[in-house]
Amino acid sequence: MPDWARAGTFRGTLGTLPVALSLDSKGESRYFYEGRSLDLFLEARRSGNALVLEESVRRDLGGDPVVTGCFSLMPAPGGLKGTWQAPGASAPLEVTLAPLDAARLPLRLPLSPGLSVLRRDDPLAFLKLNRAWVTLLGGRAVREPLSGVTYPRVPGASSALNAALQDRQLRHAADALDCRAMLPESAQKDPENGYTLSSAITLSNARVLSLREDVNYYCGGAHPDNWTEGVILDRMTGRAVPLTTLFPKLNAARQKALYLSGVKAKVDAECLDVLREDADEFTAHLSATGVNLTPSGLPHVVAACAETVTLPYATLRGDANLGSPLVKTLYPK
Description:
By secondary structure, the protein is an alpha+beta fold. The protein has helices at 113-121, 123-129, 159-182, 185-188, 243-246, 252-263, 269-278, 325-328, and strands spanning 8-14, 17-23, 29-33, 40-47, 50-58, 65-76, 79-85, 93-99, 134-136, 141-143, 150-152, 194-204, 208-218, 225-234, 282-286, 290-295, 309-312.
C-alpha cells in the first residue's frame, strides 16, 4: 500500500450507493454495500501514489476468482476520494469515504459485552448486525434478519442472562454472514449452502440455563461440516459456568471413561474403536435427566460417530459440588 495509507474503517458512497470499507494492512481488506449482507474481498496494491483495491469474486465452485471492480483512492480532506470501475465499464463511479468511528454510532440493540466488542473489533459486522431484530414465539426466540440466525430467549429473565444469549447469537450471525460471503456466487443462491444453527434450551431452573447448539455449514471448502456446542449459564449473572465448577471431579479422564461406558450400546464396533482412540474432548449441556456429553474435535471422516451420552445426575453425585447453589438445583431434596 502507499506510505500514506493506514488501516481503518470508512463509510461513504460508491456512485449513489452507501458503502462501508475496512482497510487492513494484513491483506484482508473488504467492503459491503449497506442494505446488503455480504462482504466483497479486496486485494490492496499501489499505483504511483494511489491506493488500488482490486475486487474479485468466484463465480462457481472450483473456479478461479474473477476481477469485478477496482478502487483507485487518494487521501482527501475528511477521508479518501477516488473512483471505482468495473471491467469494461465506459466510465468510473465516484467514491467518497470518511473514517468511521463506530463508538459514536447509536445502538439499535440492548447493550451487551459482545456487542461492545463487535463494535470495537469488527465495525463492518457491527454495521450489519446493529439493527432491530425480530421477536418470535411470544418473546421465546429472536431472529437476526440478515443472517436468519434464530436463538432462544427467556421472557422475564435477568438482563444479564438475555445479554449473554444475545452475545451468543451475535457470534453465530457474524459467522453465518462471513460463511456465505466466502461462497462463490452460484453457491450463494442455494439455501442448502452457508451456515445453519439449531439451538434449544435443554434445562431451565431457578439458577441454571443450559442450551445445545448444532451448526451445519458449507462455506466453499472441500466438504460440508458440522459441530455441536453445549452451553451452561448462571441464570442470574449470565456468565458461562464450566462443567468442572459444578462437578469438580469430572475431569477429562473421568468424562471419557463414563462416556465410553455409556456409548457402547449406541454405536457399532468401528465407531467405538474411533471413540476410544480420538474422543478426548467433550462439550457438555445439562438436561432434566443428567449431564450430556458430546465428543468435540473428531476428524470429519468419523464425525458421525459423535453420539451424545447422558450421564444421570445420580451417577455423578460423588463428582458434584453439592455446596454450590447451582448444583443444589440439580439435586432437589
